[in-house]
Amino acid sequence: MIAHVSRIPQSVQEAGVATPATAKPAEPEGELQSLISARPRSSNGQFVRVVRADDQKADPAALADELPGDRFLEREISWLQFNERVLQLAADQSVPLLERTRYLAIFASNLDEFFMVRVAGLKRRIATGLAVRSAAGLEPREVFDEISSVAHTLMATHARLFQDQVRPALVEEGITIVRWDALSAPEQEGLDQMFRDQIFPVLTPLAVDPAHPFPYISGLSLNLAVLLVNPKTSVEHFARVKVPRLLPRFVQIQSPDPSSAHPFGARFVALEDIIAAHLEQLFPGMRVSEHFTFRVTRNEDLEVEEDDVENLLAALEKELTRRRFGPPVRLEVADDMDDHVMDLLGRELGVEPGEVYRLPAPLDLTGLDVVADLERSELRFPAFVPRTHPDLAPVETSAASDILASIRVRDILLQHPYDSFSTSVQAFIEQAAADPRVLAIKQTLYRTSGDSPIVDALIDAAEAGKQVLAVVEIKARFDEQANIAWARQLEHAGVHVVYGVVGLKTHAKLSLVVRQEAEGLRRYCHVGTGNYNPKTARLYEDLGLLTCNPQVGEDLTRLFNQLSGWAPRSRFKRLLVAPRSVRWGLIDHIDAEIENEREGLGGYVGFKLNSIVDDQMIDALYRASQAGVKVDIWVRGICALRPGVEGLSKNIRVRSILGRFLEHSRMFIFGGAGEPIVFIGSADMMHRNLDRRVEALVRLIDPRHISDTKSLMDLGMSDETTSWHLGGDGRWTRHCNDADGNPLLELQSTLIENNAKRRLKALRTGISSRRS
């Protein structure tokens, strides 16, 4: 395990993975200097001194009058720090081996998206002259250079970690990725047949000469750069072969390794190695001199000006076609590539030297997912099966519980994946679709699964004659094509499909069911923090409220009317809705905590979220800290706030937790002078969420739910729980052992145990009540 503070295993140091620093660390050499010690600047760009906890105390009153210009951390570097934390999990030898392998794949996939969106956007703004100095005080080109420096270090560390630690550990367990030359003759013969039947027909070798211009290289495609020699003329030629993306990245060899003593061993060979061994079949009559792998990342963010298009769906479909031709932002090449081949690629692709990343083969370690999926339970996290929430079914049975009847009894607060999504939210929508008394269903869809039971239920409801409204966000990044297909399918079934409000993405997670009952119409609601996706609900930690409270039902009715029609001035009772009221609603509650603190009633603010960047929100938290309010920030990803700075943020703590589940829920807790106020919902504290999206937070009123969320926050922020701590200088330090070297609590394992105890208690209570 990566140890607490100064206990740094030699293996981690050798891997080059950033490790916890001591209280007053020296600047490390050869590690992530740009990342962990990004130099703060004031708003005018000058380097400034950071006020640290151990410096001479600043005057809080003076700081309250004018907050310092260096109070923000650079958001892009903060994101890279988040991905560095993923890499630290891959280096942690206490994590099961196949899970470490998966973390390597996650790191690579995260970085791909970062380059396609964040780096590409920054590069585009620089090129058009629209980029401005960042909130942290860096010029656009300085941000770009910092990203390049840190990304080079991280990618090199990632490759070394796989080659030097994870790959040898896999070999010890009988799991190997072998080169073609290491295969036996029978194995090669089997792959020869596979090549002829499955690979060769889909390959398209492309030569480069006066009659064949340099081919277009699609984004994230893995390619072979091939040098060919004409045996008659001895003239050298260049060709490119694209590795098919629809075939497995690593091909599992069916025959067992005769040299392995492990009964459950597995052997893989990279797809590009199979292709490389058969290149002469692609270029008959030519001699293959050399071949090298390379990979290009392009700008794949979409730009659609909604005000200028009559049909958003058609415009987006057209823009998706253009996405393949975005400009390059990164070129990954095998470290053995010849310089003249490298020069050719750089020149033809138009990439700068700083955008080239030389790495050891194999490139594109996102493909390690196929290795991580091996059925080797001893190398995985302990098996976990989500259970039905006790308020829905105190005893697990094969019969489906009546979701609507359970909601009529009490509000139900769900936490996925500990509470099953399929027997709660999914069942809620499916039962509503089948219920003859249900008159209407209204639903937002941001991301959903490929074979979505949610969409199927909406189609069934529409075909049964119910009024069904689906607010489909077809601009959900990287899910645009899938959501367009869902929109078409829903429209064909008679569902009323709308795309929300012009200029805003609909990110809120909402479902509304209207049912005819004896006493009149009743509205059943779900407000959540995560997408209506049964697959990701098994991997993402999210909260959701099921309720038939009239105020929430009225609020959701008004909000859906805004999304489908004209209702610009709607007022809400238990919802905060962006872009109008989330930011200022939360800031009003922060100001109330400041007032509580001044009146001696005590002030507290606790946020759990994915990212916090919004400057107005951060400044409000700084003001709260200066007034003495205790502030806890539990953030998974980006944090632009500097905690623990004397006179500015001394009362602010920032923690981050990563693990087998993606911490995805958002909750906002305020002390309320002894009567806590809690919201949950879809919004992170970022400009895009607060200004350019439709987001919704719902206030919890059930004392049980308020207590549960406060307990969750306390557990996540506890010094007894494994987490990363952010310092005022921008450094993240992992704390996973106590002062005696004993492991701290692991949050998600603890919640799994607590969930099992809660079900057992519910079972006992149910048995006792039936006996009485």
Structure description:
With 772 residues, the protein is α/β, with parallel strands linked by helices. Helix content is 36%, strand content 20%. Strands 14, 18, 19, 20, 21, 23, 24, 25, 26 and 27 form a 10-stranded mixed beta sheet that branches. Strand 19 (604-609), helix 19 (615-626) and strand 20 (630-635) form a beta-alpha-beta unit. Helix 5 runs antiparallel to helix 6 (140-172). Mean pLDDT is 84; it is low at 1-65, 302-310 and 767-772.
Secondary structure layout plus pairing:
Elements: H1 10-15, H2 33-36, H3 60-65, H4 75-91, H5 97-128, H6 140-172, E1 175-178, H7 185-199, E2 206-208, E3 222-229, E4 236-242, E5 250-253, E6 266-270, H8 271-276, H9 279-282, E7 287-298, H10 312-323, E8 328-334, H11 339-349, E9 356-359, H12 369-372, H13 403-409, E10 412-416, H14 425-434, E11 438-445, H15 453-463, E12 467-472, H16 480-492, E13 496-498, E14 505-506, E15 509-517, E16 520-528, E17 540-547, H17 550-564, E18 575-578, H18 582-598, E19 604-609, H19 615-626, E20 630-635, E21 652-656, E22 662-663, E23 666-670, E24 677-681, H20 687-691, E25 693-700, H21 703-717, E26 723-726, E27 732-735, H22 747-771
Parallel strand pairs: 1-6, 8-9, 11-12, 12-13, 14-25, 17-22, 19-20, 20-21
Antiparallel strand pairs: 2-4, 3-4, 3-7, 5-6, 7-8, 10-17, 11-15, 15-16, 16-17, 18-25, 19-23, 21-26, 23-24, 24-25, 26-27
